[in-house]
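Hi R.,

Here's the chain you asked about this morning:
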Amino acid sequence: MSQWVLTKGAGRGSSEETDSFSTDYFPMRPVKSNMPTEWNRKQLSSVYLIDDVDSSKLKKRGTVLLGEVGEELSVLSRLFCGKDYEYHHLYDLQKNFDSWEQLGIDHQMLPCTDIVINDRYLFKNETALVKYNLNGLLTALVENVKNKLNVVIFTGNKALTEFGIEEAKKIIKCILEKATGVRPNITFVTSNDSSLIPHDRFIITNYRLIRSGDSFIYFDTNGNKITNGGSLDIDSLANYETYVFTESLLEKLQESYKKIAERNTDMVIGNKASKFILF
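And here is the predicted structure, written out as tokens:
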């Protein structure tokens, strides 16, 4: 039995001194479907090419990008964004993005265990708008995922409180449980100090960085476009510069969490479970 594990920092071309294949991320054998629950963030963002009798069990869970014998090229090609064999895809929101389903149509989303969302004003919108857009967005993010997800949302406390913390939890739980069959872990890291929640709106998953301009609320409840934003950017963490930038974003969020928790632990609400943000 043999295997390759392509880790973050490996084969990105822009920093040859860091390119390497590491045995640190090789999973124990035989492969088990629940193994990712014990893995760290870098292991959960690696690509696994494995010859193992039970590897299909792990692949079906949609936790990590995994290929069996003969699937090497097809699995590695999924790291590209869209049809152009590039590590970046730019959607013009006013011209070529008419529903969240477009992400699925273009095969933009990959296996996933963790979702980190940063948006100060996400819950400043009407309940119906938040529910409609989160349903489309989250459902697209977890396409073919059948495992327990960790969701962490950095957002404004006042907006979330006025929206209703339990209502927000209920919306997210129902969407993800319906999509994956498993109840997710949900955590809100909140603050009324705008300096502690980054201004830019973005989402980080195991293999993708997603950035939006004015909002993640793109459509009304009838599916009509209401955003005035210009673009939605999808970036692959297989690109070295994107990986470094995303690492920096996560470091800033980790520091934000630390400062928020030191001031008032009540501002951190929920399961406090994540492989990307350490609680």
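One quick note: The CA atoms of residues 2 and 51 lie 5 Å apart.

Cheers,
M.
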